Amino acid sequence: MVLAGCLDIQSSVKAARFVRFCDAFGIPIVTFVDVPGFFPGTSQEYGGIIRHGAKLL
Hints:
The protein has one domain (3-54). Helix content is 49%, strand content 0%.
């Protein structure tokens, strides 16, 4: 497991892109996720981890 399952900026952007792709083609998504939270760090905070992570909602 990488980063203990925490979301960082790159993983949030990748997951949001996948959700938009599935939405565009009408593909249903069923997810069961146990994520401990966002990856801590000043570089993640300055990069906008909350903004990128909010795109998953």
